Amino acid sequence: MKTTPAAEKYSPLYFLASVGAGGLTVTFFMYLMFWVPHKDRPVPIFEDIAAFFPTAGLPAQIAIVVAMAGIAIFTIMNLQKLFWNISAFNAFKKTEAYTTLRNSNAETTLLAYPLALAMSVNALFIVGLVFVPGLWNVVEYLFPFALAAFLAIGAFALWTIGDFLGRVLTKGGVFDVTAHNSFAQMLPTFALAMVAVGLSAPAAMSSTS
To answer: Minimal CA–CA distance to 101: which of 26, 14, 195?
Structure first.
């Protein structure tokens, strides 16, 4: 199948744009963690914000509005960039450039894909906590779905890492140490760490004993 020049020039590192937007979603949520009282709960939720906002001073009200706007805006950006990258990546997989990448040190950049997926799940969970009334009442039923999502993403990441390690460990001389000059080699660690954070969150927030 004929591919476009744009598909040939695509890089999986573009997924990091989605990761960055998701990271800013988490950043604004952390501000609410410190600003909004959330007694008996590990995180602030919609009801906590609604109860605190009318009694807060003007600076606090402005800060809360800015934080909530930041969460909404950057989550939208996160998802938009995620979906664009998935589409672009699927086109990229049909090119010779993809085959070349899979046989080079740059194969580790493929881990940006599961990293972005894990970040998006985190961002969506934050949006639910901040903007959906009553979500905390059913959150215990949502945790298994979150765990399943992160386990699937983790399996995807491990499969990709396995392909890379299987190639470089079984074929002599295929890993070019002279080209080992990019932080992209850290992406496997970053992706697994993000999945681990996602798996630990339900355990940290659950009140089921």
So the answer is: 14
